Amino acid sequence: MSRHVPHLNVRVFTVLVFISLPLMAVAAALVLGVGQAQLRDSYGRQLTQVAEHIAAGIDAYMYRRILDVGVLAKVPAIHDVAAASVSAPDTAAIAATERQWETARVATALRLGVLDNPTAKYLREITENDRIYREIFVTDRAGRLVATSSPTTDYYQADEAWWQEAFDDGLRGRVSVGDVVWDESARGHVIEIGMPILSRADERLVGILKVVADAREMLTPASGLQLGTTGEAWLLRADGSVVYSRRVLGPKAQFGGRELLRPRLEAVKAGTLQLPVTLSAQDSDGRDHVIALAASQLGLSYAKLDWIVAMSQAEEEVFAPVRAQFWRLLGVIGLVAAVVLAVTAWFSIRLSKPVIEPGMHLSDHPAVPRMEDDEA
Question: Distances from the Cα of 10 to the Cαs of 14, 24, 336, in angstroms?
């Protein structure tokens, strides 16, 4: 008697494999896609909150520094030295003094008394005791230097843009705040503030105080923050150029995602896009980043300070936990696939056996007598 060898039911095997495995793959892809999108949104909101916090810190620091300079402009020693210079400006005399200043700055400053008068000594004490103040000097209403903490580059300041902005219409003047710049002599980033000095009698402009302040303390929230290995903060201008970041950058450095950001930055400037906003962009190395933008409020008061805080982090780092789960899920899918194949093989073998009634085993049946034997 030939022994029955079970074999797979190819149709059943094929149907089960082609239905179960694609369904599992599609389900895994959907779950991972949804999870990654949710993680991007969640992390984008977190970066936005950090960017807004940094922007608020920078705003608070600048307003406090401007307030301090305003108080300094009301100090009697500073007010009096500016108000005391009442002689009409002599163009020829100013030009001659400028030439002397260029060739013998310290000697000319000492001869004019702007470096060793009581107010100059007071200003020098401030810069020596508070390193935030890099340089402080006072001009009269005509733009002539009357007291300074250290020899300045120029004697006559009225031809400078910052001075003209602070002078305004010559009645009460207005506060002039410059952008963050690199000061080669100070080897650091500084910010310049020009403050009108008003007469105590009628609050008319009598002079202008200029403070060159170290910007490192203001920029610490941006420079000191790092999330993971790729997360960092950038202080940008509205055109996408970099004001400051923790990287070593030149004065004309641009943000890595500037080209992609350009339409959004232009929309922000036009008022058609409100910050904060979260988006994606690529850096110069082609890596995708999650970027959150938050606006500083300083630009509303000082046009040169149209700053935007950008928080950036590489997507590969953001999605690392999800991708780790993806490989674990692939392992689970592989295990499930092995179980499915085993079950499929079992069903195929069962369905390939011949149909035999229960209890009808041929070896157990009694022999049926042959008719020839009965006749005999």
Answer: 6, 21, 20
36-60+218-318 folds as Beta-Lactamase (3.30.450)
Per-position DSSP letters for 102-122, written without gaps between them: HH-HHHHHHHHTTTTSHHHHH
Q: The whole model's pTM is what?
A: 0.74
The domain segmentation of the chain, as residue ranges, is: 36-60+218-318, 73-215
In angstroms, the CA 182 to CA 184 distance is 6
Angstrom distance (rounded) from CA 314 to CA 47: 12
- Three-state DSSP class for 264? helix
**8 A C-beta contact, residue 140 and residue 146:** yes
**Per-residue pLDDT tens digits for 94-103:** 999 999 999 9
Give the closest residue to 35 by CA, choosing from 345, 373, 357, 322.
Answer: 322
Q: Which two tokens stand for residue 132?
A: 């935030």
